[in-house]
Amino acid sequence: MAIVNAGYMGYAHVGNAKVRCTDFNVKLTQNVLFYDHTIGLRDSIPQTILGSKGDGGEWNEQKIFYRPGTKIVEGSISFPFANAAFFKEAYTGDNFDLDLYYSCYTGKTFTDCKVNSYSLTATAGEGGSVSITVMGVNVKDLGAPDIYSDPEKIISWDEIKIVGAGVTEGIVAFDFTVNNNCIPIYTAGANVGTGADSALLVKEIRVGMQEVNGSVSFYNDLGPEDEFVEDTEPRDITIHAGTFAARLKVLYQYPERAGSVSPYIRTIPFVGVGHAVQS
Question: What is 151-177 written as a DSSP string?
């Protein structure tokens, strides 16, 4: 029997940007929390405990002692590198609404989201790929998407330019991650949302200490020479690709050297310092 309704359509909106996702796993989660028991399953339970069976010799089921946990929107998205989507939000820590369309008829809006982490990887001869994790406050139903959609062109390696990494022609790969260490804040009382369970939603998502890590790989041992010293100055690395531009202030770390009769690729890790992501 044929499936009548189509499944996940594979694209998401954030602001004016549209990304063709290879994986979208953002959802609202809530766990059931059980209290720690001091009363055994066959022990006597006072009649004053709501829902208890009393001392009738019956099983005192654990499901009596539970409460609903807090709610949070969180998950991950992966997509081919095609535009600057989500990088600005990762850099600034600003809130945004995230739209996901599926089954050709409807979709979901995840509200007041923040980028928890943003990772970009690119390798010579291949296109780049982006993986992000997000946190949000709530989820709402969304209307049907446009019937027709123009996909953006995927950015290939020949369109990527890296400035300030030491050399340009010898670079064969790079990657970097911006980690915002986001913290969900819950408070007592009425929070965002409506209804009796509104206090279980996140009140605010706060950006923690922003961290940047990554690496640049050079072909045949090219690249900066032994830059990791105690008093080294930060280096600005600027990555250009279409409308995308990322300027990172980093310190190279000392690389390990190896001897090989095959083509040698040296990977130099770096760590962001100061205002690691520059405007």
Answer: PPPPPPGGGEEEESSS-STTEEEEEEE
